[in-house]
Amino acid sequence: MMRTVNIILIGGMMAGAGVVYFLKYEAEHATTRVAQLSRQIQQEREAIATLRAEWSLLNQPKRLQEMADRYHTYLELEPLDPNQVATLDDIPFRQVMPDGGTAGGKGPERLFAGVKPIEHTGTIKKSTDRVGKADKPEPKGVDPKPNDLLNTIIR
Amino acid sequence: MSTTMDAFPADTFRDPAQEATHAPAQAPARGKARRSATAAGRTRVKVAMLGFVAIYGAIAGKLVYLGLKGPEHSNTLGAAIVQSSPRPDLLDRNGEVLATDIKTSSLFAEPRRIIDVDEAIEALSSVLPDMREPSVRHKLKSGAGFVWLKREITPEQRFRIHRLGIPGIGFLDENKRFYPGGGMASHVVGHVNVDNQGIAGIEKYIDDEMNLNELHKLGIVHDRGLKPRKLSLDLRVQHVVRDEIAAAKERFHAVAAVGIVLDVHTGEVIAMSSLPDYDPNNPSEALEKDRMNRATAGVFEMGSVFKTFNSAMALDSGRVSLNDSFDARGGLAFGGQRISDFHGKNRILSVPEIFIYSSNIGSARMALKVGPQGQYDFFTKIGFHSKLKTELPEVAMPLWPKRLSEVSSATQSFGHGISVSPMHTAAATIPLMNGGKMIPPTFFVRTRAEADAMAVQVVKPETSEKMKYLFKLNGQIGSGTRADVAGYRVGGKTGTAEKIENGRYVANKRFNSYLAAFPIDDPQYVVLVTIDEPKAEKDVGAATAGLNAAPTVAAIVKRIAPMLNVPPRFDLAPATLASN
After folding, report:
1. Is B155 near chain A, with CB under 8 Å?
2. B63 touches chain A (CB under 8 A)
3. The predicted structure's pLDDT at residue B213
4. CA of B73 to nearest chain A CA: how many angstroms apart?
5. N or C: chain B end with fewer CB closer than 10 Å?
6. Active-site amino acid positions of B
7. Is residue B90 classed as helix, strand or coil in its secondary structure?
8. Is the preceding peptide bond at B519 cis, omega within 30 degrees of 0?
9. What pLDDT score was predicted for residue A155?
């Protein structure tokens, strides 16, 4: 009886020692990995900080203005005029043509030919407001953050 | 039981009970001694047990302690020595970087440990061509323990040199403050010294506020917990203001220029630029002459823009109404001194006319009606008799006559004899445009609720309404017409002050300014532009504020209004001069 107990205890002890050794090596391995990862995180942080600084350097309004000036004629860029600022309320619906809008026309007119306007008065804003009440479009995803922009640059 | 017993020699395991049965004939005295011996044995066992319990208990306790302590990070491997303390990033109100820390590496060598100097130089020069210089060879052959090879190399160079694996070559990392905008907002952001400690501007303020210097002295250097600080500046607006005042400074050959944009409802400084400025990446420039911060650390006689505060004072006192008229004929004599008008109308002028024609005589008469004490109290209320309460350390004390008198009161009514900083002037305009609430200007983001909590009512809301009318009138039919931008309704007051040289006012050296608010029917922003010593353009006769400061304001507003979400409107009735 005592003997079996002792054998069991000795076996248990040896098993315990084995497990402890195993755990110790596991823990050592994990510690190395943690140190490695935290070093890597630190490096990434520094890289992000550097890239962020570079990004803001490239994005300086002064630099953008110089570029806009340089490519002014090629890109046909002009400063915004107060007359160009409008709200949706200021945009009226397209007028219906006397012959029902099917006449040929040019460009966008032909594109919309045959499309019947929903109503003849009112503005786009009012119409979108009404649509908005019926089913509100769910906002998809999240706005791109500077980090995402940086990531695209890194890659 | 018996088999177990056989396993042990009988005499090594003495059961007291068995012994008692096997030797019943033994003397009772011996039995007694035996009994006491077994008792002693028991005590020994107990002591031994206690000893083991104590030892194992100690081990278990230590294990628990180690377990609770958590893993100790062995980061030292490969981590470099950081010599300067990290600082929080400074961001503008939209999150754009104004100042940030970047890690720079410096290359050093331990010549004693270099095996082959020629090979090392050959390898190094593949990345850094200037390593071929004879001085480098000399350094490496010197046999010294430590020499710097190059300070502040780029991360890429560092990586490439690291990959070469030259023995005896190493890097030291340092935090270095970097300002991507250069001089863009230098007078607001400030700069740091070589140890990364803030010595000017907001950099100094956050050091004082967070006791960073104390931490640095104690040797505590850690990256955690340094949250970026958000400033009230809008980088885009800041750029526009700086760009436009730089253009004006060049066009009118001025010596200096200042541009300020304040939020009327929160007191936030949206933009503040003072030219000439400096690049905080090269802090020694800051010490050069003329590069001081004129917006908050310089005081000037602001001239006619003070008629704004004079009118507000007179209207707020209740002794003067918009329909009152004052005699602006001839001049106003005080003993030997005489006040006269620049564009004299030589007739009786109403209060709005005094404002739009910028009559010195009329303004002086309005001030006299309120009295020197009333003027003194009003100027105290709007902050002209104290240092500006804001975060920036560089603020100047205004200068004003220490003795109350009618003549000094009269000259102060049109901005002479009292010197304040441009920021003082812009901040004092806030209550005149927002319904009477004085809010100290701030360089950090502030919500409207926070601003309302600290606001002090300094003028009546009606006075604010009347001031908006006067600004609007002057912007549409007065001296400020060149500041108006179609759709954005800019109203304001011009100021053309003569500068003092050797104690005398000099006619051809001027300090011009335009103090404006837009959109004037519901003001959101105060804009102040000052141009120091502008010269007249060739085909234009004079160098008055209406011809240089006002168009600069127009150019600024035209560009910043869309950024600040001010919608243009073209359907508002023009202001008319109420005839009396």
Report:
1. yes
2. no
3. 62
4. 6
5. N
6. 304
7. strand
8. yes
9. 35
Tens digit of each residue's pLDDT (9 = 90 or more) over B255-301: 999 999 999 999 999 999 998 999 998 888 888 878 889 999 999 99
The secondary structure of B385-447 as a DSSP string is TS---SS-S--PPPB--SS--HHHHHHHHTT-S-EE-HHHHHHHHHHHHTTSEE---BSB---
From the list B342, B333, B500, the residue with the least C-alpha distance to B414 is B342
Query: Could you tell me which residues of chain A have a Cβ less than 8 Å from any Cβ in chain B?
Result: 1-3, 31, 34-35, 38-39, 42, 45-47, 49-50, 52-53, 55-57, 59-62, 65, 79-80, 82-83, 85, 87, 146
Q: CA nearest A63 in B: which residue?
A: B181
Q: CA-CA distance, B327 to B332, in Å (whole number)? A: 10
The reported pTM is: 0.74
d(CA B512, CA B546) in angstroms, rounded, equals 9
> Rounded to an integer, what distance in angstroms lies between the CA atom of residue B98 and that of residue B111?
40
Tens digits of residue pLDDT in B66-113? 888 765 554 443 334 445 677 888 999 998 999 988 888 888 888 888
In our burial notation (b when 16+ CB lie closer than 10 A, e otherwise), range A35-44 reads: beeebeeeee
Distance CA B452, CA B263 (A): 13
Q: Contact A59/B96, CB-based, under 8 Å?
A: yes
Tell me the mean pLDDT in the region B516-545.
87
User: How many C-beta neighbours within 10 Å does residue B526 have?
Assistant: 27
d(CA A97, CA B184): 54
Structure token pair of residue A79: 């400063």
The minimal CB distance from B103 to the residues A3, A46, A65 is found for A46
**For B346-372, what is each residue's pLDDT tens digit?**
788 899 999 998 888 999 999 999 999
Token pair of A31 as six digits: 């510690």
Q: Which helix (H) or strand (E) holds B161?
A: helix B155-164
Residue type for B225, please? G
Any idea which of A42-51, B32-41, B285-294, B464-473 has the lowest mean pLDDT? B32-41
Chain segment B189-218, per-residue pLDDT in tens: 999 887 788 889 999 998 888 766 666 655
Cβ atoms B435, B461 nearer than 8 A: yes
B315 vs B327: CA distance, rounded Å? 17
How deeply is B374 buried, as exposed, middle or buried, from its count of CB atoms within 10 A (0-12, 13-18, 19+)?
middle
Helices within B291-397 (DSSP H only): 294-297, 306-317, 351-356, 360-370, 372-381
